[in-house]
Structure formats: structure tokens, C-alpha cells
Design a protein that fits this description.
about 600 residues, elongated, 4 domains, alpha/beta, 6-stranded mixed sheet, Helicase, Ruva Protein, domain 3, Rossmann fold
């Protein structure tokens, strides 16, 4: 099976051949390896090599500029053609005329012609380590390419200029804060790409950058500069690479795994070809079979290296819903509706859910248990905002590439109201873009059934209304409320079980219930921990008088009104009647909640 050419290559070729644009920016997975078919042989090479080799033809001259290298031509004959055209352009005479002049001229004139020829070579050398000179020279080569003398074109071939690291050459940032050299290069590119002669000509410029957000907006926003995104390899491309890699290995070094190569490619979702090659080389060198755990560890390591450990982490919940105390109605709902819809890949799949309720209610613990039940990759977003200019957009684009590559993933966002901002006019541009792109990902039908968003917040009202609408997490907003009734009794039994060996009579349960009437799930857990600490010092069970003394000594922090406000917001934003206290709630009851909410707001509680 011969690896297929990438779709982005055909897309870029169509843009140039149809003259839609003369400047392309390749973004995304630009540092990976790509298949290059050379007759009966296939190799995996860097992006620039693959593109320049694939686009070679008799009517093109391909020029490559790398930031730390020279301006180079793929063939020395093409370099000579360009030098002759350059000399013709500078002198106003074609190559044959120059040759005759050179033979007939005096020694002084011949010396001048030789000097002009050397000037071309010296210009190429001067561009090494000097990107400003390099860009200006490349611009002039394009001017030379489309010039003519007496109606005859100086150069009969078209130029395709590949420029690597465009984000380093013309970086994003406020123009007043950039260096003189950066501003000079931006001006060169702006003049070059906006020149009507260039736009209507046959030459083309192809630049690479991980993200358009890293390229100065004066260049990136030009209407005739077109982005060509390069996605992460899909399952078929990974399978093709695994097949190719094994074919290169001797019989005693072929990579073995727990399953087929197709299954290995499926589990390697999220890896680039580079990372996949690294894993396969390690297994081949050690002559060991790959396990599912090996592949999952490699995927997690690679994704964290791409996004940053301070931005994302992989969660491996060790508890499930059977470890959750109380919340009987909520657990029934989760098992019956949420978990099946999260597992589904069909039309009934859910794009996400928001989980709200007062602080200390147990939201994170309960839904970590849900993640454990689902048995899928769980990505925890921690901080996707960056202090560096343009980096937030880059992080989001990296996240999008990762999500596109993964087969099934749960995105877990704790304190979602602080992660995502608003989209109003008073909101900072970066925050608006962040929220807008997250919203677009949530409602993207291509991700439905593959990516589930789980947003946790005690302040559901601070999430953007656009995020809370149906089609995003607004399909399901789940309140997690303080335990009541039988759930409350279950919490009391759980709290006392490690330390009290007597019989929990109805009178004891009622008394403890009165002492803990304002307790949240976190409060019960805190008292349980304190009781166990007293038990460890005494080495014996506690009697009820001691337990009563410890509980009565406990004072709840002065956050009751804040928790009440958050509870009311959770009740009013809930999207399922069956999850509300008492089941069906009347309109009058909802109006009462709204009045209570306004009363708290008048007190300054938000």
C-alpha cells in the first residue's frame, strides 16, 4: 500500500494553478514528516522537501529560504538561469547580447560584466544570517522574473519561493513595539504581496508557520494571503506509515503489537508521524511487542508536550459512581441518560454538559467518577490563556488539531467560568476570540460523538450565554445540590461509620441531622476526616458524646449566602425538571427563586 499524497498539497496546488492567490501560508502540523513517492520507492521527509520535490516541473524554478541557511535553488542549472536573468534585468540586454559584448568588449568592459555576475552570487551570500536582505532579494527576483525586454520575457519559467519560519521573519505584535528590522521586513512583505504585478503574475510564495496568529496581522490579514491548514495524521495515514516502517525493517526487527496494525494505528490517535516513528524505533531496537499501555503513554506524553503540562493533563480517575455517597437521583440520571449518550457516536450523542451547584457540593468528585465509568481519554484543561502575545490562539489551534486526531475524548474543565470569558464589547479581544473558538468547537458537528465537553462551575451565570445555549453544553445543565432526605442520612452514616461502632438509632440520626443541617458534601467529608484524626490518637472508637462535642465545635465559614446564591443559579439554569428538588417545579416556585436571587444581589452577593 503506497502512502497517498496529503490533501493539503492538492488544495495548495489548486489555489496557485487557478490564480486565486499567489501567497500561501501553510499552518498546523508543519514540523511533521510526510510521504514522498519517488517511483517505486517511498520515503518520509520534512514538509519543505516533500513540497519542493512534488512541485518540480520544467516550467518552474523553485527557491527555498530557511532562516538559518542560504537562499538555495534545487538545481544548479536553475540557479544559472536565474543569474542570467538577473544580469539581463540589471543591464537591459539579453544573455546572447551580453555574451557577444563580452567577446568584443575591452578588458575593462569584460571585467565589469564579470563583476556584475559575481554580484548575484554575493547577494545570495549576503542573505545568509540576514533575513531582511534575504526577503528583499527574493522580492527583487520576483520582479526580475516577470520583467521583459522589447516584449520578450527575461525568464520563461515561473518562480515558487518557499520561506520557512514566517512567524520569526514577520512576527505578530504591535508595530510600535517591534524592532526596526522586524518593521522593515513587514514593509517588504506588504509591498511584495500587495504588488498588483505580483498578484497578477505567475510566481508564487509559500510560507510556513505553526499559526496565522503568529504572523504579523499586516501580512496575515491581506485578502490575497491564503491559509492552508495541515492537520494531524488520521488513522489511515498512521496505518500507512506503520506498514511502511515495518517494510523497512529486517525480519527479526519488525514491530509487533498486541493486535493488528490497524488497531495499533487506531490507538495511536493524536500522535504525529514523528512521534509514531520514535515509538516504533524504540520497540524495534528493544525487539519487544508494543502494548496498549505503551501506546497510550506515548500519546499522553506527546499531547502534553504539544499543549504544555500547565495547560492540559490526562486524568485517570480511580473511582466510579459506586464510590459516590448519596445523590441517588443524580446517579440514576447519569447512568440512564448521560453516560449512554457520552458513549454513543450516533445522532443521540451529546456534545457536552455543564455541571453547576454551590461550592463544596461534590461536583468534581461525582463527575470524575463519571469519567471513570466512561473508560475513555480524559483531558483536563487547566489554563488555556497565555500571557504572551498571540499564544492563546496558538494553544487553541494545537488543541483543535489534537481533538481532530483523537477518536473519542472527554474534555474536563473545572472552574469553567474562569477559563472562558464573555463575548461582549467590554471583553478583551483575546478573551472574545478564546470564547468564540471554544463555542465553535462545541457546536462543530464533525466533533459530535467524538468530543464531549464537561464544564464544571459554581457560577453557571458567569458562563457565556452562547456556551449555555442548546447545541452546546446547554443541552444538559446538571445541578449538584446539597444532600436531602435519604441522601442526607447516607452521608451521616458514611461520616460516622469509621469512628462509631454503636447502633445508629433514629434518635442519633435525627440529632446529628440537626447539628449538620447546613452541611455540604465537603463539610461531611471534613468532619469525617476530623473524627478519624481523633480516632487515630485514641486508638479506639469514639462514643457519641465525643462525636457530638467534635461536631458542635465545628463552625461553618461565612459563605452561606454565597452558596445560596449559587444554588439558586443552579436551580434556575437546570435543563431537566427531573433533577430539581421534588421533581416537577411550578412556575410560581421558579418566580420565588428569582425573587430570592434578586434579594441576594441587592445585598451585593454575586
Amino acid at each position: 500500500m503506497k502512502p497517498q499524497s496529503a490533501d493539503f498539497l492538492r488544495y495548495a496546488g489548486r489555489i496557485i494553478n487557478s490564480a486565486q492567490a499567489r501567497t500561501l501560508v501553510l499552518t498546523g502540523n508543519i514540523h511533521d514528516l510526510f510521504p514522498l513517492n519517488c517511483g517505486d520507492r517511498t520515503d518520509y521527509v520534512p514538509l519543505t522537501t516533500m513540497m519542493t520535490e512534488s512541485w518540480q516541473s520544467s516550467n518552474r524554478i523553485i527557491i527555498v529560504y530557511e532562516l538559518n541557511g542560504p537562499i538555495r535553488f534545487l538545481k544548479s542549472s536553475e540557479r544559472d538561469l536565474m543569474r542570467d536573468a538577473w544580469l539581463t534585468w540589471r543591464t537591459g540586454s539579453d544573455a546572447n547580447t551580453l555574451a557577444i559584448r563580452s567577446m568584443l568588449a575591452t578588458a575593462k568592459v569584460r571585467a565589469e560584466l564579470e563583476t556584475m555576475q559575481k554580484t548575484f552570487d554575493s547577494n545570495l551570500l549576503a542573505a545568509v544570517g540576514n533575513p531582511t536582505v534575504a526577503l528583499e532579494l527574493l522580492r527583487q527576483l520576483c520582479l526580475c522574473s516577470r520583467s521583459s525586454i522589447a516584449g520578450n520575457p527575461i525568464l520563461t519559467r515561473n518562480l515558487i519561493v518557499f520561506i520557512e519560519g514566517a512567524d520569526l521573519l514577520v512576527p505578530e505584535g504591535e508595530i510600535s513595539r517591534l524592532s526596526d528590522a522586524d518593521r522593515h521586513r513587514i514593509a517588504i512583505c506588504q509591498d511584495w504581496f500587495s504588488d498588483p504585478g505580483f498578484m497578477n503574475g505567475e510566481d508564487a510564495v509559500v510560507m510556513t508557520a505553526e499559526s496565522m496568529s503568529l504572523i504579523n496581522s499586516r501580512i496575515a490579514r491581506l485578502p490575497h494571503v491564503v491559509e492552508v491548514p495541515i492537520g494531524a495524521p488520521d488513522a489511515q495515514q498512521r496505518h500507512q506509515f506503520i506498514t511502511w516502517f515495518n517494510a523497512q525493517q529486517p525480519e527479526d526487527r519488525k514491530v509487533q503489537s498486541w493486535g493488528s496494525q490497524i488497531e495499533l494505528a487506531r490507538f495511536a490517535a493524536g500522535l504525529s508521524i514523528h512521534a509514531l516513528m520514535q515509538m516504533l524505533k524504540g520497540a524495534a531496537y528493544e525487539n519487544r511487542a508494543l502494548t496498549q499501555a505503551d501506546v497510550i503513554d506515548q500519546v499522553q506524553t506527546y499531547i502534553q508536550s504539544q499543549l504544555g503540562e500547565d495547560i492540559v493533563e490526562f486524568s485517570k480517575p480511580v473511582h466510579s459512581l459506586k464510590d459516590v455517597i448519596g445523590f441517588s437521583g443524580l446517579k440514576k440520571f447519569l447512568k440512564k441518560e448521560l453516560i449512554p449518550r457520552c458513549r454513543s457516536t450516533g445522532a443521540d450523542a451529546i456534545s457536552g454538559a455543564a455541571v453547576c451547584g454551590p461550592i463544596g457540593g461534590g461536583k468534581t468528585f461525582i463527575f470524575e467518577a463519571v469519567a471513570g465509568e466512561l473508560d475513555m481519554i480524559v483531558l483536563v484543561l487547566k489554563n488555556i490563556r497565555s500571557q504572551w502575545f498571540g499564544q492563546t490562539d496558538v494553544i487553541l489551534e494545537r488543541l483543535r488539531r489534537v481533538l481532530d486526531a483523537l477518536a473519542k475524548v472527554l474534555i474536563f474543565v473545572d472552574e469553567a467560568d474562569t477559563q472562558f470569558g464573555g463575548v461582549g464589547p467590554e471583553t478583551h479581544d483575546t478573551e472574545r476570540r478564546l470564547t468564540g473558538k471554544i463555542q465553535a468547537m462545541m457546536s462543530d458537528t464533525r466533533m459530535r460523538g467524538r468530543v464531549i465537553w464537561l464544564l464544571m462551575t459554581a457560577r453557571i451565570h458567569r458562563l457565556s450565554p452562547d456556551i449555555r445555549r442548546p447545541g452546546r453544553v446547554g443541552d444538559l445543565i446538571i445541578p449538584v445540590l446539597d444532600p436531602e432526605g435519604d441522601d442526607r442520612v447516607e452521608f451521616i452514616r458514611w461520616m460516622l461509620k469509621p469512628v462509631f461502632k454503636g447502633i445508629l438509632s433514629d434518635d442519633i440520626l435525627e440529632e446529628v441531622s440537626q447539628m449538620t443541617r447546613d452541611f455540604s458534601a465537603a463539610s461531611f467529608a471534613s468532619i469525617r476526616s476530623e473524627l478519624k484524626a481523633h480516632l487515630s490518637t485514641r486508638k479506639k472508637s469514639l462514643d457519641f458524646d465525643e462525636i457530638r462535642e467534635i461536631i458542635n465545635d465545628h463552625l461553618s465559614p461565612a459563605i452561606s449566602e454565597t452558596r445560596r446564591y449559587q444554588t439558586l443559579q443552579a436551580l434556575l439554569n437546570c435543563t431537566r425538571r427531573s433533577l430539581l428538588p421534588g421533581g416537577d417545579v411550578t412556575p410560581e416556585r421558579r418566580l420565588e427563586w428569582e425573587r430570592d436571587l434578586r434579594d441576594l444581589e441587592r445585598k451585593g452577593i454575586h
